[in-house]
């Protein structure tokens, strides 16, 4: 009876051992929702469970019962099935809504695995990815699959970096540091948190008595956007495929410009710089990375956050570091690990430090380095986020100030005090963002002096 319910005993309209036939059959979903494609049993939909859509597609569209847990869904074809949401930007192009979660990590198993026989490689070597348009208030079975099915293979020019990322995560487990894993540790393949952070979502690890959050291998949203959705867009490269690390490739780009004044850098790069523009430092960094100022492939795929910092004649950072505006209503629907602020602080940062000359007449590019937030500071940022969420939930209009945390605070991000948004609660609140405290940014610079 169970097989009949899930289609396990029904004759398939395609060969489950043939990748081309599975791919061709999946194209029937393009432009349609699951509900428009198949007859679904009553009560099968749990609209608040984001993971249900993939299971529903597999069982009711493909009429297929998943393969072994450690193997691909279509075991005879060696093909894993994934569904993931996309959001259209103003120009009609799509970006990934979130990371693409691949397979759950067993810390004990991972510590003893080798790449060629790893659970990750066996399960995810070849994947059929179906992209649906994410609409928050629309049931998962009514979200339309807006792009043709995509066959992803771990055999392209990104494989070397993905493999290196896997080794980095495995080494952290072998070092007894599974509890300190960060998505900033790696570039394309990450070990993301699974679960809501309760006690049931913690796991033991082989080389430490400290319990670690349950994690899964995932492709970063930036990788899905720039390596899959925008695969035909040509970005300049740092050349990591030649065996050069990200840090070394970046150092080579900037080495000949360190210590130079901004106007001299612009002259050498052959472009006119407008010092009245708020973004001129960012323009300098972009032009050094590539003369065209275009995005760099590796940085775009890895979701590296580029930040410029100005120090005054006394060597002090005067300005807090801002991040994009957040929506107060979104806070109530998000867990910490799903929040935009979490995604930002889990990122790898590229800092470019500009220092004002002693007489205040010019600026020089003093230092460039990569940085990721330490575990303890990430927990403090989480506390600020949770205080903000709770304050909004109970109707307060004051949020964590710079005096309340050593790491971050909330403050306006609008043009002026009149720049407000109407929330679902009926309150008019000023456009706001999370900021890193100026003193905290100063501490980052001082700890990266070399």
| CATH fold topology of the largest domain | ECO RV Endonuclease, Chain A
Find the structural class using helix and strand composition: alpha+beta
Mean pLDDT, as a whole number?
90
Largest sheet: 4 strands, mixed
* Total domain count: 2
In the CATH hierarchy, what is the class of the largest domain? Alpha Beta
CATH architecture classification name of the largest domain: 3-Layer(aba) Sandwich
How helical, in percent, are the residues?
Answer: 25-40%
Secondary structure: number of strands: 17
Number of helices: 16
Q: In percent, how much strand structure appears in the residues?
A: 15-25%
Please give the radius of gyration in angstroms.
24 Å
Give a verbal description of the structure.
This protein has 450 residues and is an alpha+beta fold. 30% of the residues lie in helices and 21% in strands. It is built from 16 helices and 17 strands. Helix 10 packs across helix 11.
Quick synopsis:
With 450 residues, the chain is of the alpha+beta class.
Features:
disordered N terminus; ECO RV Endonuclease, Chain A; alpha+beta; 4-stranded mixed β-sheet; 450 residues; single chain
How is the secondary structure organized here?
Elements: H1 2-6, H2 19-26, H3 34-37, H4 52-61, E1 80-88, E2 94-96, E3 100-104, H5 107-112, H6 119-124, E4 126-133, E5 150-153, H7 159-174, E6 189-193, E7 202-205, E8 208-213, E9 215-219, H8 221-229, H9 246-254, H10 262-269, H11 280-289, H12 297-302, E10 305-311, E11 321-326, H13 328-333, H14 340-345, E12 349-356, E13 363-371, H15 375-393, E14 408-412, E15 420-422, E16 428-430, E17 432-436, H16 438-446
Parallel strand pairs: 1-4, 10-12
Antiparallel strand pairs: 1-2, 3-9, 4-5, 6-9, 7-8, 11-17, 12-13, 14-17, 15-16
């Amino acid at each position: 009876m169970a097989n009949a319910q899930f289609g396990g005993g029904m004759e398939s309209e395609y060969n489950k051992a043939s990748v081309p036939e599975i791919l061709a059959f999946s194209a029937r979903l393009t432009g349609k929702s699951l509900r428009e494609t198949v007859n679904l049993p009553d009560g099968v939909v749990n609209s608040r469970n984001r993971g249900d859509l993939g299971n529903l597609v597999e069982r009711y569209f493909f009429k297929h019962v998943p393969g072994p847990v450690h193997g691909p869904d279509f075991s005879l074809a060696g093909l894993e099935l994934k569904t993931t949401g996309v959001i259209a930007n103003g120009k009609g192009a799509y970006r990934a809504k979130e990371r693409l979660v691949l397979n759950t990590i067993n810390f004990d198993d991972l510590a003893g695995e080798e790449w060629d026989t790893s659970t990750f490689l066996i399960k995810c070597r070849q994947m059929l990815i179906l992209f649906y348009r994410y609409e928050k208030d629309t049931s998962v079975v009514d979200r339309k699959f807006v792009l043709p099915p995509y066959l992803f293979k771990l055999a392209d020019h990104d494989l070397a970096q993905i493999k290196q990322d896997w080794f980095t995560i495995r080494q952290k487990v072998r070092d007894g540091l599974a509890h300190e894993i960060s998505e900033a540790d790696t570039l394309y393949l990450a070990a993301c948190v699974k679960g809501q952070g309760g006690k049931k979502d913690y796991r033991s690890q082989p080389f430490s008595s400290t319990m670690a959050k349950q994690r899964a291998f995932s492709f970063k949203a930036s990788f899905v956007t720039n390596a899959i959705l925008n695969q035909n867009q040509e970005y300049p490269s740092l050349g990591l495929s030649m065996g050069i690390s990200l840090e070394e490739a970046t150092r080579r780009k900037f080495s000949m410009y360190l210590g130079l004044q901004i106007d001299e850098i612009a002259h050498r790069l052959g472009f006119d710089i407008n010092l009245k523009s708020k973004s001129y430092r960012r323009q300098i960094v972009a032009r050094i990375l590539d003369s065209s100022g275009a995005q760099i492939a590796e940085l775009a795929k890895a979701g590296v956050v580029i930040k410029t910092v100005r120090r005054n004649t006394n060597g002090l950072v005067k300005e807090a570091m801002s991040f994009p505006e957040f929506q107060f209503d979104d806070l109530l629907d998000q867990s910490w690990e799903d929040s935009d602020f979490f995604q930002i602080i889990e990122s790898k940062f590229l800092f470019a430090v500009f220092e004002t000359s002693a007489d205040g007449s010019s600026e020089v590019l003093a230092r460039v380095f990569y940085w990721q937030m330490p575990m303890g500071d990430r927990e403090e940022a989480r506390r600020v986020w949770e205080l903000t969420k709770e304050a909004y939930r109970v109707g307060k209009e004051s949020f964590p100030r710079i005096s309340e945390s050593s790491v971050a605070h909330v403050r306006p991000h609008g043009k002026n005090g009149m720049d407000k948004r109407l929330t679902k609660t009926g309150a008019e609140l000023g456009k706001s963002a999370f900021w890193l405290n100026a003193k905290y940014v100063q501490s980052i610079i001082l700890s990266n002096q070399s």
